[in-house]
Amino acid sequence: MTVGVVPITDAERQQRVAKAQRLMREQKIGGIFLEAGSSLDYFTGASWQPSDRLFGLVLPAKGDLVWLVPAADEKRAPAGQDVRLWQDDPFPRLAQMLKDRGIASGTLGIDERARFFVFDGIRRACPALEFTNADSVTAGCRMYKSAAELALMQRASDVTIAAYKAGLATLREGMPQNELQNNIHAAYRALGYPGYVSVMYGAYTAFPHGSLTPQKLKLGDFVMIDDGCTVEGYQSDITRTVIFGKPTDRQRQIWTLERKAQDAALAAAKPGAPCEAVDIAARKVIEAAGFGPGYKTPGLPHRTGHGIGLDGHEWTYLVKGNKTPLAKGMCFSDEPTIAIYGEFGVRLEDCFYMTDDGPHLFSKQSPAIDQPFA
Length: 374
Prior knowledge:
The protein has two domains: 10-142, Creatine Amidinohydrolase, Chain A, domain 1 (3-Layer(aba) Sandwich), CATH 3.40.350; 147-361, Creatine Amidinohydrolase (Alpha-Beta Complex). 33% of the residues lie in helices and 21% in strands. The chain is built from nine helices and 18 strands. It has a six-stranded mixed β-sheet with strand order 4-3-2-1-5-6, sandwiched between helices. It has a three-stranded antiparallel β-sheet with strand order 7-8-11, with helices on one face.
């Protein structure tokens, strides 16, 4: 499923940088420092794993980008750009970079993923600076996906559904959960993408993030599979809960309730509505059936959804207290869970993106307890 994938262009990344600079000027932030990670990738296309040797970028409110690169990695530095190399201590070099971009004083934003030793080194080297979280800039750009980003996320979703279908077709009584996991991983490889899946059976489906306890599949068990794959850095996240064998009335009742909660969340995702309205809608359905209240179990023990893009979980969130208005281009998971510890759990997760007319699903919802795919 690799044909037709279109990577993000340099022109789009330049537009992202321009927007970030506009946001910084509006907020009176002199610049932001990005350590290696997803935001650095978002603005520049540079994929770099953090290490003890600091690699980063100053994105100033005005002027060109400037890179901080270990001298040992000079040959990996971006060609044709302002690159500053360091040997023993990166922070004096970084202080000079900031001064050269007019950020010797004022406010510097720090990427939320920057490690403490990085922040501590910057503030020691730049005592005249004030510091702020760069989320208002980074998330202020990344929350709103372009058509190119949505296309990559759509492909990731399509690949995940195909891998899940292939894996669930191999279910058999007595199957260890790691065998199903390996089958789905093999399907991802055959489809051409890196992917991951967590697998839970029976009572372990009540644990929102699974369990390492060895499990073997029995007739009458729920099977829950969760996670996704990566296409050009963009993520999918899909959960399916399906019965192996014949469901009990209790299992059918809870599965149907979960689907109603997922539907209610989607119906509440209206342009301009606060993000928390989606969480409130899903929780209301679950609580009306006698579960909860709030985050209590049996019931829904976590927020209804998270943002998704270059990170599987990113800003912003469908959670109580989040007044951020839903707007075009925002992407979320819709995954209310009903966790009944000691018995089972049900989670149905499909991601959607906001349009001017409302939410649009990347993947079709599960139609029935024994039919995970539409």
